Model the fold of this input.
Amino acid sequence: MSVLAHTNVLANTNVLANTNVLANILCFVLQAVDAPSLRGSMPHDHPFQRILLSRGIFPEDAVRSRIKNTTDRITGREIHIDTYNVLFTISNYLLGRMVFISNDRFVRDAGEVYGKLHKDPVFKRSIDMLVGYLSKIQTGRVEFYIDKPVSFSAELAGSLREILSQQGINGDAKLEKNPDARLICLNTGIVASSDSDVLDETGLPVADIAHMVLKDHFSLNLPDLGSLLS
Done:
């Protein structure tokens, strides 16, 4: 079956209800657009594919709502950052791991790094890239929300406060037991996250700041699941 036929199947049937079928088709389509890490034969229930599906394909109503609420106009505006969510996406790109554009237009990664990167130079570079970008575009106040239970979070908060001060950025880094819940409850500013729950439940505009940072530093050619499935 051709790539066009595969994408037509996705667009015109209820194949989303069958994750096994979708995983095989999606793997085929991504191979066709030269996604090296998906080449070769993979079982349809491979963990990588499950991650790709859960982070890359969303229902149409959620996609429409998220796109409607998304903004890239953050200059001069207060911004609240889902710290690990953003930094891990940037870090995974720098590490050469799979990063893609989901069908809701947000950039996500298929990495499972969690708290493992804190001492890696790549993580420090991700921080510098993010804060440097915020300084460059002259945002308003910046608030970083950090998962308190994750190892080295207090150290990260201290580092971010120091970097903000050095860059002359008005802001803070806050340790939170549940950053997602805190972000959802905010009523001013812009929320920067690609977390599905945050995107769907916040009443504020949302920004894909990881994508903005990466585009500012690199000529990106990321697999675009939304385009592939349209």
